Amino acid sequence: MRPKVLLLGRVEHATESWNSLSPLAELVEPRARNRTDFIDECRKGTLDDVLVIYRTFESVDMTGRLDEELVTALPASVKFICHNGAGYDQIDVHACSNRGVKVSNTPDAVNDSTADTAMFLILGALRRLNVPMTTLREGNWRGHPPPPLGHDPQGKTLGILGLGGIGRNLKSKAEAFGMRIIYHNRKELSEPLAGGAEYATFESLLARSDIISINIPLNADTRHMLSTREFEQMKHGVVLVNTARGAVIDEGALVEALDSGKVSSVGLDVYEAEPDIHPGLKANPNVMLLPHMGTWSVETQTAMEEKTIANVRSALEKGSLRDVVPEQACCEIQLARGKRSETGYVVPLTCC
Ligand SMILES: O=CC(=O)O
């Protein structure tokens, strides 16, 4: 029997590539429009024979998080989940590993547009452009009195929290604006990867940066990584930019740090409880806000869809994914080294 590929969400740009999967598999969509009905549909067997799921970030509005409950409810035939997005915090990878389901994401495809968005927010927050952009639209030109002068990026220290694909892309762009780059990762990078950026401990990055950019994934270790204690360690008047995931920052603590002047200005593309935004952020004129637009360009959305489809194709043709998420890629290395568990893919994630 031909396997099925289940589409959760929509393919809007790479439709030709999507349709080219038809000879390999039956492309199906769920009837359900909410989580309860979707779980029901899975349990009734309507989606049996689905081997691969293609899902989008927005499909969470229908299914809710791909947490243990949902992963357990999926048909036993599901072996691959191809997520269209770099951040895959909507998926419980551990639950997937325990069920032998492999997960892919779209690294690299998002690097340029997300780093561009971070650069836009860095410049906007440094120059405090949110205030005059508002007064102009209100018919008040620069406002009365005019806003305080902003700051130039040249010569400022940019602390990149998470020098991965997006962080490194941002580094090159920020260097073109004359910024000095320091970074913190769990482990110091080799020189070719760091590209001259100086490694700093977490505490040192907090203390030395004029601007801090968040470029780490959200997981149990990084949730609220920046809260009251961390804001206290930062320079007075620090600028903060987040294009990663909102919950890396404790939004309540951020509002307090803005109100006290510890943080002078902020650029945000992501929030703790999207689409809800802390009222203290909306009310503060020193905050530039975007509604999660980091990858919102024709080129990047197309590249992300193409990458996700390439993973679906690889699953169908080769039985493996091209962009396995790091947690599972690490387990694969362990498996290849002979640490394969009796039960196949069930490998402790602590190996990472
Ligand atoms: O937020 C965007 C992504 O995770 O790709």
From TrEMBL:
Keyword rRNA processing: no
Signal peptide: none
Keyword hit for Oxidoreductase: yes
Residue ranges occupied by any D-isomer specific 2-hydroxyacid dehydrogenase catalytic domain in the UniProt entry: 63-325
Family: Belongs to the D-isomer specific 2-hydroxyacid dehydrogenase family.
Pfam families according to UniProt: 2-Hacid_dh (PF00389), 2-Hacid_dh_C (PF02826)
GO CC aspect terms: cytosol
InterPro entries for this protein: D-isomer_2-hydroxyacid_DH, D-isomer_2_OHA_DH_cat_dom, D-isomer_DH_CS, D-isomer_DH_CS1, D-isomer_DH_NAD-bd, NAD(P)-bd_dom_sf
Record PANTHER family: 2-HYDROXYACID DEHYDROGENASE-RELATED, HYPOTHETICAL D-ISOMER SPECIFIC 2-HYDROXYACID DEHYDROGENASE (EUROFUNG)
Keywords: NAD, Oxidoreductase
Protein name, entry field: Glyoxylate reductase
Domain D-isomer specific 2-hydroxyacid dehydrogenase NAD-binding: 120-294
GO MF, one example: NAD binding
PROSITE patterns: D_2_HYDROXYACID_DH_1 (PS00065), D_2_HYDROXYACID_DH_2 (PS00670), D_2_HYDROXYACID_DH_3 (PS00671)
